Structure formats: C-alpha cells, structure tokens
Automatic annotation (TrEMBL):
It comes from the Bacteria. InterPro entries: HTH_17. Residues 46-89 form the Helix-turn-helix domain. It comes from Mucilaginibacter segetis. This is Helix-turn-helix domain-containing protein. It holds the Pfam family HTH_17.
Length: 95
C-alpha cells in the first residue's frame, strides 16, 4: 500500500467549508421534515406546573375567562399555544 499523499487527495479549507455547509443544510432539512411534533393540548396538571398555580387559582382563572379551555369527557384541556401567549402577555401573575 502506498502511504504517499497525492495532490488530488488534499483537502482545502474551502472543501471543508463546502462540506460543512452541505451537512448543515442536510440537518436543517431533516429536522424540518422530521421535527418532533409539539403537543397542542395539555391537561390541568401541566398548566399548573407551567404557571406555578394551585388547583384553586387555575379554577379561578378558568371561571374568570382568563384561560381558555375545553372539556372533553370530564377532562379539562388547554391549548398550549394560548397558555404560552398568556404567559408572554403578563396577564397571569403566578404566586
């Protein structure tokens, strides 16, 4: 086996940069195509943890219409995106 490196076997910095860019584009495309789906609806326990509120405070926020919710089969669900928007809008003050 010949251990000598020939001119056509050398990598340039540009070769590495091109490879790096191609690899990043492939990763971005993969994540875009196969990204982890986000959960749209969450239950009361998750909302209480996010907002750091008690059962009573969560009920109060529902009763006052501050937090939109859906009840299905006796289970209360909240839209995660709406909860995040409320958190960002400073309408809810956790204890």
């Amino acid at each position: 086996m010949n251990d000598k490196t020939t001119r056509d076997q050398l990598l340039t910095i540009q070769d590495l940069m091109n490879f790096s860019e191609e690899l990043l584009n492939d990763i971005r495309q993969f994540v875009s195509d196969h990204g982890k789906p986000t959960k749209q609806w969450i239950k009361s326990a998750a909302v209480k943890n996010l907002l750091r509120v008690s059962d009573g405070k969560l009920q109060y926020l529902r009763d006052k219409g501050v937090i939109p919710f859906t009840k299905l089969g006796g289970v209360t669900y909240y839209n995660l995106r709406e909860i995040e928007e409320l958190m960002n809008s400073d309408q809810i003050h956790a204890r």
